[in-house]
Design brief:
The complex is a heterodimer of chains A (486) and B (253). Chain A has 486 residues and is of the alpha/beta class. Chain A has helices at residues 2-13, 35-44, 49-63, 104-112, 119-124, 146-150, 159-165, 167-173, 184-192, 433-441, 446-457, 459-462, 467-481, and strands at 26-28, 88-90, 130-136, 139-143, 155-158, 197-201, 210-216, 227-232, 237-245, 252-255, 258-263, 268-275, 287-298, 304-311, 316-319, 322-325, 331-340, 345-354, 360-369, 374-383, 391-400, 406-415, 421-430. The longest helix of chain A is centred in the first third of the chain and has 15 residues, at 49-63. The chains are: A alpha/beta (486), B alpha/beta (253).
Chain lengths: 486, 253
């Protein structure tokens, strides 16, 4: 037993790698939330009148809503929305045209996170070309490869820039999948969102590289409210990746994002997330509250949206990437690995809403709980009346490490059309001491053994990630779970 | 190679090994036989370092080192290999990936660089033949969905890949049909060398027709009560264990 405790100790003291703070000259909005703050943000961003109107409508609606606290399997104190600063931005030019204009501290920050803002460096290794939009606190600092993409008519820029440069597209699509009335955090985000990424792939274009946004919370006492909008027009394809980290702090920081995806006829969007927000310490102090609304609509026939997420961070995760399967023959997929350790809590899953005919959805969810954490899968499969021959396959597996953690599965299935076929499989297992001893006996130490076993368990999901990120995710999983077998 | 002196070991407070002595020299094959519950598998587990087994007395020297002080993984890295009676399944982890990880861990322990991928694949190809293992099995998840025979063959394949100095076979013959038994035994025989020793734990003489031991030991009530040449196995097959039991009891009186 002594051995196990030592290992557990080791893990608990294993540090969050991205907990550093960068000293950047930052401009804040005063703490608190009211109409003036909404106007302040809008003015800072020099937004057109219609954008401000949208924010104000959302804000007024938010005031009428209540913080949702009852249905999720989560336990945390009420958030004090007046104690948050809703805007923080590096003082140097928020948008830059060349690398020389980026604050060198910022460049260093992103390099430390393994993200290069230098396009030349990325061009050397041809296979791993990835265009990056780097967002720090409330603003996007740099988007790479914009010109290369523009040649194909692809728009990839910060949300703020899109509001100015492509107002017609923003007005057409913003809020079309997640209206500001959708839920409490979506309303809040719609009122105060600061930045994020916008991506538009025109008709018939296959995006030649992975697009990626990297979100970083740096400042203390702030929230991050970003918005991402991805549109694949008819026959277009894009693979998009989102990554995120935050410094290690004792306070809880709020992250309430909205992601909207639209796939038109024959369009396809593959969205991958590696979420590694600071999870708090072993006693549950600090960490990010991750309250996120992600939804896509397969608007046209034969369209496809695929969500892949690897969730290892955040004190609390509340997140259900969903697909509205409106177009006939459209396909929705959700592949998820959610890891909780120490005092982390996650309530995550998906919604697959079948509306069109012959629509198909697949849900593969792998939950891993360790320490004293709680990990819940919550998912809805709804087959609407008229959604002829809809099919769903769901598989929800839970892996427990130790005997102080919890794993829960809350599947909701609503079938309003008799031709629908829904399959649901669920398993719960423990990492066996036998498995670990077997690895030990082959010369593999316990830490590595856990990494190996967990990665094997998550393989179906990790296989969905773009190559470079799959490798990162594997490492991240091993680090998140170091020594957590008890 | 390995020297076991007055070894006492218990599981959950119950003493199973009660003063066991055994000396294995390089290149030798020792068979351990004995009735059910005599402590045969316990011996294998204790030597491999399974956590629930507590050594209460005695000493074990392996290649000049105090084995008992080493962690299970370090014992493996020092060249001790246990072929499991019930090989464990690890879903989603390919045999190849598993072995590569193991080999590189062992190499790192010895201060060597990770194995060259080409060299590794060549090694896999070569060693698969030893136990007539299908190439596809090497790419499948560790032991997942393997038949009983495939699992045992996979153990010997792993042993061939890791090239230990001491191989402990824990009832490797159990659950094998005669063809599989021959394949497994042939695999082991090909691995025999002047530098490599084996401890073969078995219930039945049958396996020893194929893997011919230098010595046969009878384990009874936590001690080795009789040692003889390979013919002893035949005698046991014929007469059973009762005469050994009464001899042992008489000796104790």
């Amino acid at each position: 037993m002594a051995d196990k405790n030592e290992i557990l100790e080791e893990h608990i003291s294993s540090e969050y790698k991205y907990g550093f703070v960068t000293d950047i000259d930052t401009e804040f909005a005063p703490k608190g939330l009211n109409e003036d703050i909404v106007r302040f943000i809008s003015k800072k961003k020099n937004e057109p009148e219609w954008m401000l109107e949208y924010r104000l409508k959302a804000f007024r609606h938010w005031l009428t809503m209540e913080e949702p606290k009852h249905w999720a399997h989560l336990d945390y104190p009420a958030v004090n929305f007046q104690d948050i600063s809703y805007y923080a931005a590096p003082k140097k030019k928020p948008t830059v045209n060349s690398m020389d204009e980026v604050d060198p501290e910022l460049v260093k920050t992103f390099e430390k996170l393994g993200i290069s803002l230098e396009e030349q460096k990325r061009l050397v290794g041809m296979e791993s070309k990835i265009a990056v939009d780097a967002v720090i606190d409330s603003v996007s600092v740099k988007t790479t490869f914009k010109e290369v993409l523009a040649e194909k008519g692809i728009i990839f820029c910060s949300f703020s820039e899109a509001v100015h440069e492509h107002p017609e597209l923003i007005r057409q699509y913003m809020g079309s999948v997640v209206p500001y009335t959708d839920n409490y955090y979506a309303a809040l985000n719609s009122a105060v969102f600061s930045d994020g990424s916008f991506c538009y792939i025109p008709k018939g274009v296959r995006c030649p590289m992975e697009l990626s946004t990297y979100f970083r919370i740096n400042s203390s006492g702030t929230g991050q409210f970003e918005r991402t909008l991805i549109v694949a027009d008819e026959g277009a394809y894009v693979s998009y990746l989102e990554g995120c980290t935050a410094p290690q702090r004792d306070e809880n920081q709020l992250h309430a994002a909205v992601v909207e995806i639209v796939a038109q006829k024959d369009g396809e969007v593959k969205y991958s997330t590696v979420q590694n927000w600071y999870p708090g310490d072993k006693n549950g102090k600090g960490g990010i509250y991750n309250f996120v609304t992600k939804r896509g609509i397969c608007a046209g026939s034969n369209s496809k949206i695929s969500w892949t997420q690897v969730e290892t961070g955040s004190a609390i995760t509340w997140k259900y990437p969903s697909v509205i399967l409106k177009g006939d023959n459209s396909i929705g997929e959700f592949y998820s690995v959610a890891v909780t350790n120490n005092m982390q809590q996650a309530d995550t899953g998906t919604k697959m809403l079948h509306i069109g005919r012959n629509t198909k959805s697949t849900i593969i969810s792998k939950g891993i709980s360790a320490g004293k954490s709680n990990n819940s899968y919550r998912g809805l499969v709804r087959i609407s009346k008229g959604a002829k021959n809809a099919r769903n396959f769901s598989q929800c597996d839970s892996l427990l490490m130790g005997d102080k953690c919890g794993a829960h599965t809350f599947p909701y299935i609503e079938i309003h059309d008799k031709s629908g076929v829904v399959e649901h499989e669920a398993t719960t297992s423990k990492i066996g001491e036998d498995q670990i001893f077997y690895c030990n006996q082959r010369g593999i130490d316990t830490e590595k053994a856990i990494g190996l076993i967990v990665n094997g368990y998550c393989k179906e999901v990790l296989n969905q990630l773009p190559m470079e990120f799959a490798v990162e995710a594997q490492k991240l999983l091993a680090v998140s779970l170091e020594g957590s077998v008890g | 190679m390995i020297s076991i002196k007055n070894l006492h070991a218990s599981v959950e407070g119950k003493e199973i090994l009660k003063g066991l002595n055994l000396e294995v020299k390089p290149g030798e094959v020792h068979a351990i036989m004995g009735p059910n519950g005599s402590g045969k598998s316990t011996l294998a587990s204790v030597l491999a370092g399974r956590e629930d087994y507590e050594v209460t007395e005695g000493e074990v020297t392996f290649n000049g080192k105090n084995l008992i002080e080493l962690s299970a993984e370090d014992r493996a890295r020092e060249g001790l290999f246990l072929a499991f009676q019930y090989p464990i399944e690890i879903p989603g982890v390919s045999n190849i990936n598993f072995l590569k990880t193991a080999i590189n861990e062992i190499r790192e322990y010895k201060g060597l660089d990770p194995i060259d991928p080409k060299q590794f694949l060549a090694l896999v190809k070569e060693k698969q033949k030893l136990v007539e293992l299908d190439g596809k099995l090497a790419n499948r998840s560790v032991n997942e969905g393997f038949s009983g025979g495939e699992k045992k063959r996979n153990e010997i394949f792993q042993m061939a890949m890791l090239e230990p100095t001491l191989g402990i076979l824990d009832e490797t013959d159990s659950g094998l049909d005669i063809d599989a038994l021959r394949i497994v035994a042939n695999g082991v025989n090909k691995l025999r060398s002047p530098e490599r020793s084996f401890i073969v734990v078995t219930h039945y003489q049958r396996l020893l027709d194929y893997i011919v031991p230098d010595y046969v030991h009878v384990l009874y009530n936590g001690r080795i009560v009789k040692t003889g040449p390979k013919e002893l196995a035949l005698e046991l097959e014929e007469k059973g264990y009762d005469w050994i039991k009464s001899d042992a009891q008489n000796a104790a009186v």
